[in-house]
Amino acid sequence: MARIIDITDKLTFDVKPAIMIAGKKIEINDDAVTVLKLMGKMGDGEKDVTPGLLAELSDMLFTQEGKDIIARMNLNFHDYSILVETAMNLITGGADEDPKPEGSTITISSMTGT
């Protein structure tokens, strides 16, 4: 008889990472297929991020609700770039911040271009 291992307790089905901006929670798509596509788009990290690529990454990263929230914020390009970079780092484990517990939220309190 084949061995069966139940890993259900190790998985986080409904927990999505999120970024908080000005009190608005923006969930990040972190499913494996999306992350693999994002990583494929970025390659080895040497790629120049063009506005078109940034828009493509954003489209994959954020839920429709998140995209609507972001659109209402009217972020400038620099702030939008920070948002996308932070979301990418959050789901790929490349964030420079202290490690956060699973299911936690990163808050970006100031997103000025200074």
Distance between the termini: 64 Å
Strand order of the largest sheet: 2-1-3
Unreliable spans are 97-114
Globally, the shape reads globular
Number of helices: 4
> Fraction of residues in helices?
40-55%
Mean pLDDT: 82
Order of SSEs, N→C?
EEHHHHE
Overview in brief:
The protein has 114 residues and is α+β, with helices and mostly antiparallel strands.
Topology, element by element:
Layout (H helix, E strand, L loop, with lengths): L17 E4 L2 E4 L4 H11 L8 H11 L2 H10 L3 H16 L12 E4 L6
Parallel strand pairs: 1-3
Antiparallel strand pairs: 1-2
Helix pairs in contact: 1-2, 2-4
Which short descriptors sum up this protein?
114 residues; alpha+beta; 3-stranded mixed sheet; disordered C terminus
Describe what you observe in this structure.
The chain has 114 residues and is α+β, with helices and mostly antiparallel strands. The protein has helices at 32-42, 51-61, 64-73, 77-92; strands at 18-21, 24-27, 105-108. It contains four helices and three strands. Strand 1 (18-21) and strand 2 (24-27) form a beta hairpin. The radius of gyration is 16 Å and the shape is globular. Residues 97-114 have low confidence and may be disordered.
